[in-house]
Design brief:
- The chain is of the alpha/beta class.
- The chain has twelve helices and eight strands.
- The chain has a single domain, classed as Aldolase class I (TIM Barrel, Alpha-Beta Barrel).
- It has an eight-stranded parallel β-barrel, surrounded by six helices.
- The longest helix is centred in the C-terminal third of the chain and has 18 residues.
- The chain is globular, with a radius of gyration of 17 Å.
- Bound molecules: 1,3-dihydroxyacetonephosphate (13P).
- The site of 1,3-dihydroxyacetonephosphate has 14 residues, from strand 8.
Length: 251
């Protein structure tokens, strides 16, 4: 059985005080219920405090990015070890906002993914096509190209330690969620790529999350699909009740 995960990407939101309050509210609302793996990803500045606030819960903490080198003259950057020792077990890599706004390439994300794995972080590696690409009928080519670049050279053992997130760019922050059928089609396609590159058993073990305008009201339909193993949530993860509603839709 592959891991089901609900992850919240807080993006550039929340001061330390606000982040701790939101983490505490999520912990309170999720209470004692049996829940899937929950990961919250605050900004770097709040990682340590949020990790401490969640110490006595099963909720995991992740970063939203990291640098691929161990240390050195990289002003403004944060290493994998820094992320790990801030209390994180996950790291989001290759988010479309990093690719479009900060020029991250598949090769760079591949290097970051390898580094994250060497320190024992679980990378959540993002793929997804733009609206223009989808409308031009290029969805599969784009996803396959990203997949090959991002995961280039990873062994089956390494690939089993990553999580993939399918985030169609046209659905991120737009309120225009992919239909369960649209998302399932791509998730099935990605699992097929994994089976081809590795083997069926490996492909069936890998968690593939959907991201893009997920809310409490549309989550259950997505989670009902065979190949959708959870969600990477942006805007709706900034409100405790909405995020927990998504978690409950998985139960
Ligand atoms: P929204 O849920 O706000 O569309 O953002 C999705 C996302 O980018 C998560 O990484």
């Amino acid at each position: 059985m592959r891991r089901k995960i609900i992850a919240g990407n807080w993006k550039m939101n929340k001061t330390i005080v606000e982040a701790v309050a939101l983490a505490a509210a999520i912990k309170r609302e999720v209470g004692q219920i049996e829940h899937p793996v929950m990961v919250i990803c605050p900004p770097f500045t709040a990682l340590t405090e949020v990790s401490m606030a969640l110490k006595d819960s099963e909720i995991q903490v992740g970063a939203q990015n990291m640098h691929q080198e161990d240390s050195g003259a990289f002003t403004g950057e944060v290493s994998a070890e820094m992320v790990l020792t801030s209390g994180c077990s996950y790291v989001i890599l290759g988010h479309s906002e990093r690719r479009t706004l900060f020029s991250e390439t598949d090769q760079l994300v591949n290097a970051k993914t390898r580094k994250a794995l060497t320190v024992g972080l679980t990378p959540i590696v993002c793929v997804g096509e733009s609206l223009t690409q989808r409308q031009a009928g290029q969805m599969e080519t784009v996803i396959e190209g990203q997949f090959n670049g991002l995961l280039d050279g990873l062994s089956a053992e390494e690939i089993r330690r990553i999580v993939i997130a399918y985030e169609p760019v046209w659905a991120i922050g737009t309120g225009q969620v992919a239909t369960p059928e649209q998302a399932e089609e791509v998730h099935r396609f990605i699992r097929g790529l994994l089976a081809r590159q590795y083997d069926e058993a490996t492909a069936s073990e890998i968690t593939i999350l959907y991201g893009g305008s997920v809310k409490g009201s549309n989550a259950a339909g997505l989670f009902a699909k065979e190949n959708i193993d959870g969600a990477l949530v942006g805007g709706a993860s900034l409100k405790a009740d909405e995020f927990v509603a998504i978690v409950k839709a998985m139960i």
